[in-house]
Amino acid sequence: MSTSDSFASTQLTRRHHHTRTIRVDAYERSDGLWDFEARLADVKSVDFRLASGLRAANEPVHDMLLTLTIDRALNVVAARAESLSVPYPGYCNTIGPAYGQLVGLNLMRGFRDAVKTRLGGVAGCTHITELATLLPTAVIQAYAGVVLDTRDASAAEEQSVQPFQLDRCHALRTDAPAVREFYPRWYRGPAGQDATGCSGAGATDSA
Q: What is the pLDDT along the chain (207 residues), one digit of tens a residue?
C-alpha cells in the first residue's frame, strides 16, 4: 500500500492524541519598533502521566511565549521568554532570563546559528529555542509590503532595488520562470530579454 493509499483507506480508524500549535503575531508599535509574539502549546486529548504528576486531557503540557522587539533593520532590541505551562514547574520556568542573549542579534545575519550557540541544548528550553528559530521568516512575512519593498509587475517600474524576496527560494530564483512572469524587470535567465528589455544573443527559452 502506498503512502497516499494509507491516507485514503476507508478501513482505517484514527484516535486523536496530541495537538501542537505554533502561532506568531506581529504588532507595529507607535514608536516605530515591532513586537513579535511567538507561542507554542502542546495539548493532549488524553490524560498524560508526567514524572511531576498527572496532566489532565486538554490541559497544556507546554505553553511557551517568546516576545521579541525588532527594529526596521531586523535587529533584536528586546527579548522576553515566558513559560506559562510546563511539565516540571519550578524548573522549566526558570530559563526565561537566558533569552536576553537574543538582544543585539540580527534576524538575517547568522541568527539561527547564534541561537543554537547561545541557547541550544542545556543552555535553553528546547521549545522556546525552537520558537526563536522560526521568527526570521515570520518577521519577513510581516514586514513584506510594509517595511520591505516587495512590489512586482507594473508596480515595480520605478523600483531601483531588487525586491527582497528574490533569490531566497527555488521558485524566486532570478533565472526562474516565476520571476520572468511576475518580476520581469529583475529576470536574469535565458528568456530572450534581460532586465533592461534588450534581446539576449543566442538565448533560448527553456521554460
A: 565 566 656 788 999 999 999 999 999 999 999 999 999 999 999 989 988 888 889 899 999 999 999 999 999 999 999 999 999 999 999 999 999 999 999 999 999 999 999 999 999 999 999 999 999 999 999 998 899 877 655 554 566 777 778 888 898 898 988 888 888 888 888 855 444 444 443 333 333
78: β partners: 69
**Whole-angstrom distance, CA of residue 177 vs CA of residue 174:** 8
Helix and strand totals (H; E) in the chain: 4, 6
Query: In CATH, which of 3.30.450, 3.10.350, 3.90.1010, 3.40.220 is domain 17-143?
Result: 3.90.1010
Contacts of 125 (CB under 8 A, 6+ apart): 64, 81, 83, 92, 95
Beta bridge partners of 72: none
